[in-house]
Design goal:
The protein has 23 helices and 25 strands. It is α/β, with parallel strands linked by helices. The chain binds phosphoenolpyruvate (PEP) and manganese (II) ion. The site of phosphoenolpyruvate has 11 residues, from loops.
């Protein structure tokens, strides 16, 4: 531990202390790496190398808890240790590669990328070859073709090329070159892309008249650029060169779209960060070499293929069925025009698996029955699949240093109680159709539908999903504190109303789009998807750009214009049951969404109106098993609006768990007595911790029966 600081210490002294501490941090990381290398050498069997997500989660939880004892924020500690663990995994993977390809880690390597220093490709190259950086030489090329030629001719050992972006889509030229050059894919890398607007000095946005960038970056920032109508946008060969250009021009009215790194490298200012259309913006790169590399079966791999089907009926379907027959998960399917054969196509397919695995090699053999061309581009360690994602700690297990009493343990992934659904009592299709729904019926689809909200899976699977937060977003401080608690207690989705359906027109109506921005920002800070209600059909498209889940409020369950509009967007929907609606009317309403094309529907039981006045509404617990019988859609329960008073919320939530719901949506507030809406039913922060612990214990108890 460092010495206590005697105030007032001069700034220079304090900075020296920081230098000292940072050095110690780096030395500790270097020592950690050495230990990891020793650990790897003690591993022998295949089982030793299998990634143990449970152990990683437990380790993270323990570190978060220790961090809190030392007064550090749990989220901060999580982020740091995710990187540390990720690095250990890379070291382990490189070890396995080196074992099969002796000497490789000491060889000097020449790596080509497109563009100049400071481009995203350069960053991806350095990230990918980080463990061999001492022996690596990086060189920029001006075209993808030159890069491929460089590898083919032997001047380069590897080339790293962008293949797709999550906003702008596939990079067709690269796909076509992969088809033409006799090269192999030996790796992939995923880089988060955070475009920034870069200028010479901190000037108001309105002063910018001309913006330069690479055409793909321009495409990814179209929405931001549309808000600068007086600006000319010009495409430039690469993002880093665009930064160089505006620096040379020395003109305060010019700006470039590029990475933070490029701005830093040229000593320029960032006017605005995160200007991409999509908040989640990633580019996937492929690493190509002359020869394929062989990866140990213990490393989770992907395999890339190119094929052209025979010109026969059903040939593509048969190819895809062959992959399915061998239980191979398809992660990408792209079609490109087949050179010299008009109106025929090459299909580029990525699957999870390694050619060293007999399932994969047999499937590839069988594919040859239905193809007129087949090329295996290679197998390589996966970066985009489930097994390659970083673990999350088990929040809640770690007491917050600020509270005197430790909240009981809850896990990040509270598991669902598994209750059998009787197939014998599923109503037949014609009965469902008479009641106004077909696509929503169990008879139409027997297995549970799973709705994905980012990494969270609602329905079917193992998880019991908790969506939680304030009734209304009221301020940045309020929503941020709520998001932090959801994250710390292991909830998966942040809720918050910004368009509020209020009984009285004089009541608080919500902060609108300003509130949506706060909600989304808070969600981003704590890695939580967000759910919010949309009330007007005209708001649907705009809310869907930012919110992860659209909520249809109970009062709008039969607002058919709204349902039709939401049916057309590609976002999950939480459809609440109207207080005066029957179960079948709820299902018929959900059919509007499904029939319009949106199949990511979750139903929500939130209490109905009865003669009882002790609770705000009457939670219809019976609706849960009935819905499970009649529909494949996930069922969420809202104990807050049903109860109307805080003290009944936890028992109702427990009833939902026991009756087989897939999750709950629940309200809490930092100061319920000051809440601008629904204060009486809001749990306190402590109450929310209790709720999480209770449902965790209950689900575990039900599972062990
Ligand atoms: C809400 O969830 O904020 C809400 C208004 O709920 P309901 O539509 O169920 O009344
Ligand atoms: Mn509410």
């Amino acid at each position: 531990m460092s010495d206590p600081i005697d105030p007032p210490a001069p700034l220079d002294d304090l900075r020296k202390r920081l230098d000292h501490i940072d050095r110690a941090l780096l030395e500790a990381l270097a020592r950690r790496r050495e230990v990891v290398e020793h650990v790897i050498r003690t591993k022998e069997t295949k089982a030793d190398f299998v990634r143990d997500q449970d152990r990683e989660e437990a380790l993270l939880t323990e570190r978060v808890s220790l961090g809190r004892e030392l007064g550090l924020d749990g989220y901060f500690v999580t982020k740091i240790f995710q990187q540390v663990l990720d690095n250990s995994l890379r070291i382990q993977r490189d070890h396995l590669v080196a074992e099969q390809n002796p000497g490789v880690e000491h060889e000097a390597i020449r790596i080509g990328y497109r563009g100049t220093e400071g481009t995203y490709s350069h960053e991806a190259a350095r990230k990918h070859f980080a463990s061999r950086v001492e022996h690596a030489f990086f060189r920029g090329y001006s075209t993808f073709r030159e890069l491929m030629e460089g590898v083919q001719a032997g001047g380069l050992d590897f080339a790293i090329v962008p293949i797709e972006n999550t906003t702008a889509g596939s990079i067709n030229e690269v796909y076509d070159l992969l088809g033409r050059f006799p090269l192999s894919v030996i790796g992939e890398e995923v880089l988060p892309i955070d475009h920034c607007l870069v200028a010479l000095e901190e000037v108001p946005l309105g002063n910018i008249r001309r913006i330069y960038s690479h055409q793909l970056a321009i495409a990814q920032c179209g929405d931001f650029l549309a808000g600068l109508p007086g600006c000319t946008v010009e495409s430039y060969p690469d993002t880093a060169m665009a930064v160089e250009r505006i620096k040379r021009a020395n003109d305060l009215s010019q700006a470039a779209i590029a990475s933070e790194e490029a701005a830093r490298a040229h000593g320029l200012q960032i006017l605005k960060r995160r200007i991409s259309n999509r908040r989640e913006n990633y580019t996937r790169f492929m690493v190509v070499a002359r020869e394929a590399m062989h990866y140990d079966a213990r490393i989770p791999c992907k395999t890339s293929l190119i094929l052209a089907t025979k010109h026969e009926e059903g040939a593509l379907v048969r190819c895809l069925n062959t992959l399915a027959d061998h239980h191979l998960n398809l992660t990408k399917l792209e079609s490109r025009p087949r050179p010299n054969v008009p109106w025929e196509y090459l299909f580029y397919i990525d699957i999870e698996g390694n050619v060293a695995d007999p399932e994969v090699s047999t499937a590839i053999d069988e594919l040859s029955r239905d193809v007129s061309f087949l090329k295996v581009l290679g197998s390589y360690p996966a970066s985009t699949t489930e097994s390659a994602r970083p673990s999350v700690p088990k929040p809640g297990a770690a007491p917050d240093s600020s509270s005197t009493e430790a909240p009981p343990a809850a896990t990040a992934r509270t598991r669902k109680a598994k209750l059998p659904v009787s197939r014998e009592t599923t109503p037949p299709l014609d009965v469902a159709i008479k009641k106004g729904y077909k696509l929503a019926s169990r008879a139409h689809r027997a297995s549970d539908s799973v709705v994905r909200i980012g990494d969270v899976q609602v329905g079917g699977g193992e998880e019991f999903v908790v969506m939680a937060g304030p009734c209304s977003v009221e301020s940045w401080e309020q929503v941020r504190a709520c998001a932090e608690l959801v994250r710390d207690q292991g909830g998966q989705v942040l809720r918050g109303g910004v368009f509020k359906p209020r009984t009285s027109t004089y009541s608080f109506q919500g902060l609108g789009y300003e509130g949506l921005d706060l909600l989304v920002r808070a969600g981003e800070e704590f890695d939580l998807p967000v759910v919010t209600e949309v009330m007007h059909p005209a708001d649907v498209q705009r809310v869907a750009e930012d919110a992860s889940v659209l909520q249809v409020g109970a009062r709008n369950m039969q607002n058919f214009a709204l349902l039709r509009e939401i049916g057309q967007v590609d976002r999950p929907v939480l459809l609440k049951r109207g207080p005066m609606s029957s179960i079948d009317e709820l299902l018929a309403a959900s059919e509007y969404l499904l029939a319009a094309g949106n199949h990511q529907v979750m139903l929500c039981e939130r209490g109905i109106r009865t003669f009882e006045t002790a609770t705000r509404f009457t939670l219809d617990v019976g609706a849960i098993p009935v819905l499970k019988e009649r529909t494949h859609l996930p069922v969420i329960v809202d104990p807050s609006h049903a109860a109307g008073v805080r003290q009944y919320v936890i028992p109702l939530a427990e009833a939902a768990v026991a009756a087989g719901a897939d999750g709950i949506i629940v309200e809490f507030h930092p100061a319920p007595e000051q809440a601008l809406s629904d204060g009486p039913q809001a749990l306190t922060f402590e109450g929310f911790g209790d709720l999480m612990a209770r449902i965790h214990h209950l689900t575990e108890a039900l599972r062990s029966d």
